[in-house]
Amino acid sequence: MDEQQPVPLTKSAPVPAPAPAATLRASDADRDRIADILREALAEGRLQPEEHAERIDAVYRAKTVGELEPLVHDLPAAPVRGAASAGPARDAEAGARPRTSPGAENLVAIFGGAMRKGRWRVRRRTNVFALFGGVEIDLTEAVFEQREIVIHVSVVFGGVEIKVPENVTLHGSGAGIFGGFDVATYEAPDPDAPVIQVSGFAFFGGVDAKPKRGKRLKNLRA
Q1: Distance CA 134, CA 211 (A)
Q2: What residue ranges do the domains of the chain occupy?
Q3: What are the phi and psi torsion angles at 72 (to 5°)?
Q4: Backbone angles phi, psi at 138, to 5 degrees
Q5: What is the pTM of this model?
Q6: Residue 33 CB neighbours (<10 A)
Q7: For residue range 48-92, what is the model confidence (pLDDT) as tens digits?
């Protein structure tokens, strides 16, 4: 009787290892989290304005989470808001997908200018950074697809001008440090009108936001 030959074991394909957290592409939510920590550090005196400006510039240029984390390694973490995640690195270690903020846009002006005007779709959040530069945002002909809009401004030796339709609600919560943060608070008669919230700070610079007379928003959604 012939002896039965053993059947060779087949090797399964190797399972690829998950990408290190530091190599993950940074989302707008990741950048916002780091910018919040830097803003708190500036307000508490942990960072000088020049340091803050350099780090904020690096935040909005960062492509990966690994480029973001070193910018706040020597600062206290920002407080957790609601059930927000503790950070993209911890999410990745736990196997979770990092949270994203698809409704965000960044406008950066460094020794130059940036502009948003005409008929354009307004994102839920717009982050503005001006360093020795100027930014103009004109919302009078824009298309609003959300009722609440946030424009977060960081200005260092620069200026930001924001024009809004006269039939929307405009709120402001910011600070001028050797500069001005002038937001003309206005409540629209229509309680369902869009609400624009302008926040941030101006250091040796200025932020000006006000309704433009004669310009009215016609439709909330195109």
Answers
A1: 19
A2: 20-77+88-101, 103-222
A3: -130, 20
A4: -115, 110
A5: 0.58
A6: 24
A7: 767 777 787 788 788 898 898 899 989 887 544 333 333 444 443
